[in-house]
């Protein structure tokens, strides 16, 4: 199902619900509203949940995304991704290597299971390495500063462009992206954007719909 062309479409509006930024809504409520507004992918990322809470939430989001035909990815936790029947996992530079994650996924699910592995990259070199290791898509950034993570490396739009042009993989830009800078970010050649505050802070459905509309207009 998630070949490169389908992944390019799925990465168009990649939303990461957040219990603090999106309060008082639960992660599931935020995801549902984001999908109502046009989100094409949802990522579960929550460092404060214990394993049991994370798995329960992942199972609920996996079901929700499956019903909507959206991509569902779990951040960092390969075990939770596999146990919840998520579409895949997203790995940072300090997480499991992509090659080892792929080996474990194949061992757990079999060669026929189309498990998606995304990789965070900041440079053209890291993008090449991720592609060579077997990643299915790239999360490129941080393009701008972001309030959700204080220790990010900011690469700017030009850094994003340099990373994207070195690979054939589908890609989503991440980091401080909003309606105001969306056109500039998309000009870097990414397939879509990964956002938190731009969608889940406030009226989630309305903000997702506005972002999706702008992305469609930019693609024309």
What does this structure look like?
- By secondary structure, the chain is an alpha/beta fold.
- It has a single domain (4-219), classed as TIM Barrel.
- 45% of the residues lie in helices and 16% in strands.
- It has ten helices and eight strands.
- It has helices spanning 4-10, 27-37, 51-68, 78-83, 98-109, 124-133, 156-164, 182-186, 197-200, 204-219; strands spanning 13-15, 41-44, 71-75, 88-91, 116-121, 137-141, 171-174, 192-195.
- Strands 1-2-3-4-5-6-7-8 form an eight-stranded parallel beta barrel, surrounded by seven helices.
- Strand 7, helix 8 (182-186) and strand 8 (192-195) form a beta-alpha-beta unit.
- The longest helix is centred in the N-terminal third of the chain and has 18 residues, at 51-68.
- The two termini are 25 Å apart.
- The relative contact order is 0.17.
- The model has no long low-confidence stretch (mean pLDDT 94).
Kindly report the spatial arrangement of strands forming the biggest sheet: 1-2-3-4-5-6-7-8
Number of continuous helical runs: 10
Distance between the termini: 25 Å
Overall body shape: globular
Report the mean per-residue pLDDT as an integer: 94
Q: Which residues form runs of ≥5 with pLDDT under 50?
A: none
DSSP strand tally: 8
CATH class: Alpha Beta
Write the layout of secondary structure elements.
Layout: H1 4-10, E1 13-15, H2 27-37, E2 41-44, H3 51-68, E3 71-75, H4 78-83, E4 88-91, H5 98-109, E5 116-121, H6 124-133, E6 137-141, H7 156-164, E7 171-174, H8 182-186, E8 192-195, H9 197-200, H10 204-219
Parallel strand pairs: 1-2, 1-8, 2-3, 3-4, 4-5, 5-6, 6-7, 7-8
């Amino acid at each position: 199902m998630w070949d490169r062309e389908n992944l390019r479409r799925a990465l168009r509006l990649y939303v990461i619900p957040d219990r603090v930024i999106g309060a008082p809504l639960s992660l599931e409520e935020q995801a549902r509203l984001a999908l109502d507004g046009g989100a094409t992918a949802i990522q579960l990322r929550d460092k404060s949940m214990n394993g049991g809470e994370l798995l329960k939430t992942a199972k609920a989001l996996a079901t929700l995304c499956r019903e909507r035909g959206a991509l569902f990815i779990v951040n960092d936790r390969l075990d939770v991704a596999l146990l919840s029947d998520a579409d895949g996992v997203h790995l940072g530079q300090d997480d499991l290597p992509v090659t080892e994650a792929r080996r474990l996924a194949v061992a757990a699910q079999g060669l026929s299971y189309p498990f998606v592995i995304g990789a965070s990259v900041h440079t053209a070199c890291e993008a090449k390495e991720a592609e060579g290791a077997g990643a299915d898509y790239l999360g490129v950034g941080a393009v701008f500063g972001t309030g959700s993570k204080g220790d990010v490396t900011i690469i700017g739009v030009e850094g994003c462009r340099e990373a994207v042009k070195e690979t054939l993989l589908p890609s989503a830009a991440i980091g401080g992206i909003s309606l105001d800078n969306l056109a500039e970010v998309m000009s870097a050649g990414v397939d879509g954007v990964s956002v938190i505050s731009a969608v889940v802070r406030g009226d989630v459905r309305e903000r997702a719909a506005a972002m999706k509309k702008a992305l469609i207009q930019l693609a024309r």
